[in-house]
Write a structure and sequence with these properties.
The chain is α/β, with parallel strands linked by helices. Helix content is 22%, strand content 23%. It has 2 domains: 21-114 and 203-212, Nucleotidyltransferase, domain 5 (2-Layer Sandwich); 120-200, ATPase, nucleotide binding domain (Nucleotidyltransferase, domain 5). The protein is globular.
C-alpha cells in the first residue's frame, strides 16, 4: 500500500476499528476539533486564533466529545493534521492526539495539512483540465507549496517557495487552479494570469477526518510533525 500523502512513498498500516473519528487541526490560524461518523460531523468546534492552542484544545475536545455523546473508547481513529504549519500548533495537536490514543487504546494517524483543503481537488468543475497547486500560509513571507495530481498525489515533495517564484511558476503553468490560505492568494484576481483560478481555503478539520476515513488508508501518515523547513526554535545559550 502506497502512502499518497507521504513524499517518501512509505506506508505505515495502522489497525483501526469501526467507529467515529476524532479529528484535530491546529496547524493553521485556528484550533478546530470534530467528531465525524459515517461522513457526517456529529459535533464540531472551531476557534480562529494564532496562539493559545495549548489551553484551548483539550476543553474543546471534551465539549465536542460530550456533544457527540461518544466515549473515547468508542472512537475508531484519532486523526490529526501534521503540517506543514505552525510549529507550536502542530505540536499541541499531536500531543493531544497521542495522549488520548495512549489512554484509550484508539490508534492515532497523521494527515497532511495540504490534503485537508479538499477531496478530489482536481475533480471539481472549476479545476478540471488544469494543473493544481496548494499554497499554505507559513506565517512568514515564504509559503508552503505542492502541486497536486488528479488522484490527490503530490507531483513533487512539499517545499517552501517565495511569492515571486510562485508567480513565475503560474505564468508558465497554463490553465491552473490554486487552493490554500497563504496571504499571497488574497491579492486579488489581477495578481494572477487570467487562466489561473484561485480558491482561498484553509485546512478543514472535517477533511482531516475524511482523509482518515479512506478505506484503503492511502493518506495515513505517522502522527508526527511534517516540517518543510527547520522549525524557528533556538536553544538557549549556555552560561
Amino acid at each position: 500500500m502506497t502512502n499518497r500523502s507521504d513524499p517518501t512513498g512509505k506506508a505505515r498500516p495502522i489497525e483501526s476499528k469501526a467507529g467515529p473519528i476524532l479529528a484535530i487541526e491546529t496547524g493553521g490560524r485556528a484550533c478546530s476539533v470534530a467528531i465525524v461518523k459515517d461522513g457526517v460531523a456529529v459535533a464540531e468546534e472551531h476557534i480562529a486564533t494564532d496562539h493559545g492552542q495549548s489551553t484551548l484544545l483539550m476543553p474543546m475536545i471534551e465539549r465536542v466529545r460530550a456533544e457527540a455523546g461518544c466515549d473515547y473508547a468508542e472512537l475508531g481513529r484519532i486523526a490529526v493534521a501534521v503540517g506543514p504549519g505552525s510549529f507550536t500548533g502542530l505540536r499541541v495537536g499531536l500531543a493531544a492526539a497521542l495522549g488520548i490514543s495512549l489512554a484509550s487504546g484508539v490508534p492515532a494517524v497523521g494527515i497532511s495539512s495540504f490534503l485537508a483543503v479538499g477531496i478530489g481537488i482536481l475533480q471539481a468543475p472549476e479545476a478540471r483540465h488544469r494543473r493544481g497547486f496548494i499554497l499554505l500560509d507559513s506565517r512568514r513571507e515564504e509559503p508552503f507549496l505542492v502541486e497536486i495530481g488528479d488522484d490527490d498525489t503530490f507531483k513533487f515533495p512539499p517545499r517552501v517557495t517565495t511569492v515571486a517564484d510562485f508567480d513565475a511558476l503560474l505564468e508558465s503553468a497554463g490553465p491552473a487552479v490554486v487552493f490554500g490560505d497563504a496571504p499571497a492568494l488574497a491579492r486579488g484576481a489581477d495578481a494572477f494570469p487570467p487562466e489561473v483560478h484561485v480558491i482561498q481555503r484553509a485546512p478543514q478539520v472535517v477533511l482531516v477526518a475524511a482523509r482518515a476515513a479512506d478505506p484503503e488508508r492511502r493518506y495515513d501518515l505517522q502522527p508526527k510533525p511534517v516540517y518543510v523547513r527547520p522549525p524557528d526554535v533556538t536553544m538557549p545559550k549556555q552560561p
